[in-house]
Write a structure and sequence with these properties.
By secondary structure, this protein is mainly α. It has one domain: Cytochrome Bc1 Complex, Chain D, domain 2 (Orthogonal Bundle). It contains five helices and two strands; from the N terminus they run ααααββα. The protein has a two-stranded antiparallel sheet. Strand 1 and strand 2 form a beta hairpin. The longest helix is centred in the N-terminal third of the chain and has 33 residues, at 2-34. The chain starts with a helix and ends with a helix. The relative contact order is 0.17.
Length: 164
């Protein structure tokens, strides 16, 4: 009888872990698909000297060039923003292999190859600002918690990923 109770206890424990893992996976997937604001918004503050006349989001087109004048500093600031808002889905190196991204079909884009590295800055900005629809399905929600400047910084950082 003791053997049956132990086996039953192991099954209950295993079932509990399966439920916990499923819940955590669902939460990660929901966070990535809805791009809820993290508990603290990215704290990267741009310096006034790094900005030219930043176009408002309504005037950005796919062909708009990144208006930040110091792209190296912008990319450094963008690295923090990327790690806080993008890496969960796109992965630390941008290959689309983030832990939350595994739950999505289709998977998140690989930001290091394909059309992303050759896409104009404005197109990348608009994807982050407005979200992305692929095959009639919203595959990336807009990141509304980011300022326009933070999006441009993230774009500058994404540009560095293709060379890694």
């Amino acid at each position: 009888m003791h053997h049956r109770q132990a086996a039953s206890g192991r099954r209950t424990s295993a079932s509990l872990w399966i439920i916990i893992i499923a819940l955590l996976s669902g939460l990660a997937a929901a966070a990535c698909s809805s791009h809820e604001a993290p508990s603290s918004a990215p704290s990267t503050a741009p310096t006034a000297s790094s900005v030219t006349n930043t176009p408002s989001a309504t005037s950005v087109t796919k062909e708009t060039k990144n208006p930040l004048t110091n792209l190296a500093a912008a990319a450094e600031a963008g690295k923090t923003i990327y790690s806080q808002t993008c890496a969960a889905c796109h992965g630390d190196t941008g290959k689309g292999d983030g832990p939350a991204g595994a739950a999505f079909t289709p998977p998140p884009n690989d930001l290091t190859k394909g059309t992303v590295p050759s896409a104009p800055d404005g197109e990348l900005f608009l994807v982050v600002k407005q979200g992305k629809i692929r095959d009639g399905k919203m595959t990336m929600q807009p990141l509304k918690m980011l300022s326009d400047e933070q999006i441009w910084q993230a774009v500058a950082y994404v540009r560095t990923l293709a060379s890694k």
